[in-house]
Design goal:
Order of helices and strands of chain A: HHHHHHEHHHHHHEH
Radius of gyration of chain A: 20 Å
Shape of chain A: globular
Number of helices of chain A: 13
Oligomer: homotrimer
Strand content of chain A: under 5%
Largest sheet of chain A: 2 strands, antiparallel
Distance between the termini of chain A: 56 Å
Helix content of chain A: over 70%
């Protein structure tokens, strides 16, 4: 009976995501056990990660439908970057600090430049100049700019040879704690439907899952993401050595995309449907979550999980790129207007930054 | 008869400021003569400076009530940073260039990040999302951004090893003169009630002082500030050596706060009373006065007063922090909206910057 | 009969430009043949270039009157920087890379800081605080900010000692191609009267030239500009050696002004007539054309014309100045308001930047 119930409560599209995610996860696991070609495992695990990320998102929304919009916001904040979180943990245990730092920056660049650009480009081609209510996006952009300013201070301290240059780890921890305080403080704001709570009425929850199913899928996808992240990180070093890709480029572009791919499609679909308000909010909020939540959490956790300690002292060019992305996405959001040409210029800038990290 | 007159024309609050300022000043003077513990003198002189700064502010407003709003604006511009000016002069004569530079930057950071953040935080907790007419704040923020851009050029020239790198003093003087020309040009604008004239009708001048009293208090507070500044600077080096605080941190946080403490409380009170327009204008205007007036005046005066010559070649991290503060306060002002979360993030960023200068 | 026709179809002002341009061009040519004093030739060729630039502008507008507003926009984009383009080509063939790079940056700084400042100053003194519809200026400013962000990446890559630091030429070419793609994509937008098409109805075409005359003047002015550019570049090195001016200052200030002088006067005239919308659009659009079109075209052409290869690796201070100009002109445009004080501050900042390049 429960199976019949399941069939009616899940839409065909949702079944498709569940099915392919499960298949990709099992196949990636099988190949890892069989010691198959690492490039193949790397690609398959990457695809699997994207699908599991999408599944976590769907299950969070469904669970949220039972708990109210505030709770949904909190869960989205907490679980939205779950796959990236697992990849970060396993990569840190493997000592791949550079990859983790590049992936964090790449996630912000990918959202604030590439995905935002794609959304403007697609939306603009279909609907001409698009106007959007800029209050929520402005608030998110401002908070992101503030978070990124805090995030780059350790690198500036280190780069500019200040007397604090010998204390990067302590200073990174101090920055991480302060950022987390702001992150935690922002959660009740989301609960009350405050300024950084995304508009929820525009979401189309096409079918309603029972609470046990949503929980089950969420837990299943989470456990799956943990396993797949492990295999993904194991395959990463041999795969990129074979393919001659630099670790920074891998983190900045490939890892960042794998963790956000399906979510990004959703943001772009909203723009294509002329719901630019929602698209811009969703896309910029992803950047904010990484800067304000994921990055400081990984810094603090790296002290306890063994492996390398993550600091916020990044490669200078990563910091420069972060600064550009933060300023540009703020300026573009304050505008309250978007055109496909702006979108194309954003995509162009993202390409130039990505190319600049190609040489390793 | 004049004493009786005095009692009615001064409010209880004003009497309190006059009394405690006089007491603190005399005590600080006594301890200096007695060669008391320098930490004690340093703290007492700092408190005394804050109170004298407040007194100069009150007396300026009272004198202004007799002279019209334009003249008040000019006097506020000229006298608002009087205590900081005296501290700067004495510190330069004592050769403490690093402290003076840090105090100038700290004054801007303190206003544009910490005090603005506190105002948003307190105002937002009481009144929810606050909206403010952003024309005057925008104009002030834009001029501040322009002034800070000019202010950082000498450091950029020096840091980037340009051919002009051997001419820092001459170039600093050129920058100072150009900034002062803009500063002087801005004074008639204030006189006519122009764009950077602060709204005066919202000020509650609770009691009206006769003109002789306002002048007397102003002159008295000014002379007091000159003496206290001398004692403050004399005690500074032994005090921070004893307390193991770096000179840059001292200038950036302690000296900057001592010169602005009471004024800041006023700005925050306005936000708490939901007069955000006025609060934002007052707070940002303090930053503008430092960048456009105080800094270039000290550069030029340092050529004549003996002691070290002040240049605008700052520590690179100070310039980076200035840039962040300028961009962020502009973005936040253009928004026209404030929330307590934004305020908290501003306070967080200020804390991170202050911590980064802790190690000396 | 055609001469008589000519006399009626050209206004007195237009005759004046044609006459003085022709006279200055011939005189410059004569002096070059006679091997006259290089300083004299340099000045005369510079004046001649400004006049020919103005002539190209007038002829483009006249030809555009026959072809519709979209075509005018495209031709303005393509031909607006013709004299600067020729100077760039000849200077590259003479190996003067530093001069060309400085002239490109100087053209942007000159427009976005100096000319915009003059327009605000003159307009503000005459008409008080000026408000302008900020949609088109914002769009231009945003695209300029994006273009400049892309333009500075090669310098950042080189300066920050990244692994890509050995590949500056390849990376510059990649950036140039991406910028040109965006530039070409923006042309149909202008054709359709899209966001970066300048309002044309406000232009006063005082007399209507026949199509053959407009074409003739355009071709003549173009050929003249090519010759004069050659003489200008030949005289440049001996002239500045004699005058003890650094090559960077020459490029940044003198070459940049010679290519834009008359156009700038037009922009300022619009502000003086209280048509600020149009003034801001015209002035900022000049910067955008240089960043998005002229700079990448010169990078790509330099690979084929012999002489030095132009890269986008600029002197770090040029990049810092570009960044300041881009951020400031964006902030000031988003404001939607201008005052003479803002204008004065912009002129002050431009002066400070120009002075910083004086020492060579």
């Amino acid at each position: 009976m429960q199976i019949a119930n399941l069939r009616t409560s899940m839409s065909r599209q949702e079944w498709l995501v569940v099915g392919t995610a499960a298949a990709a996860t099992m196949l990636a696991g099988l190949l890892t056990i069989l010691n198959a070609n690492s490039v193949l495992i790397f690609i398959l695990a990457g695809v699997s990660l994207s699908l599991l990320a999408a599944l976590v998102g769907i299950a969070t929304d469904q669970l949220g439908a039972h708990l109210g919009s505030g709770a949904t916001g909190v869960m989205q904040s907490a679980l939205g970057n779950l796959p990236e979180f697992f990849v970060g943990i396993f990569a840190l245990r493997a000592g791949l600090i550079g990859v983790v730092q590049a992936a964090l920056v790449g996630s912000i660049l990918g959202n604030s430049l590439f995905v935002l650009g794609l959304a403007f480009f697609v939306g603009g081609l279909r609907h001409g100049t698009q106007r959007f209510a800029s209050e929520t996006p402005r608030m998110i952009a401002t908070l992101t700019l503030l978070s990124i300013s805090a995030l780059v201070m350790p690198t500036l301290v280190s780069l500019l040879h200040t007397p604090a240059a010998g204390h990067e780890e302590g200073f990174s921890i101090a920055c991480a704690i302060i950022l987390l305080v702001v992150f935690i403080a922002s959660i009740p704001v989301s609960l009350k439907g405050g300024p950084i709570c995304l508009p929820t009425e525009q979401k189309e929850v096409t079918s309603s899952w029972p609470i046990w199913l949503a929980t089950l899928v969420l837990v299943g996808a989470g456990i799956g993401a943990a396993f797949v992240s492990d295999w993904f990180v194991q395959a990463l070093t041999p795969a990129i050595t074979f393919l001659h890709i630099s670790p920074t480029f891998t983190g900045l572009v490939i890892v960042a995309l794998a963790g956000n791919a399906v979510e990004n499609v959703v943001g772009i679909q909203f723009a294509a449907r002329n719901q630019v308000d929602y698209a811009v909010s969703v896309i910029l909020n992803s950047s904010l979550q990484v800067a304000l939540g994921l990055a400081p959490i990984l810094v603090l956790l790296s002290l306890f999980i063994g492996g390398a300690h993550l600091t916020l002292v990044l490669a200078p060019l990563l910091v420069a790129a972060l600064g550009l992305a933060a300023v540009l996405s703020t300026v573009i959001t304050y505008d309250g207007e978007s055109t496909w040409l702006e979108g194309l210029a954003l995509i162009g800038l993202y390409s130039i930054i990505a190319v600049s990290f190609w040489w390793g």
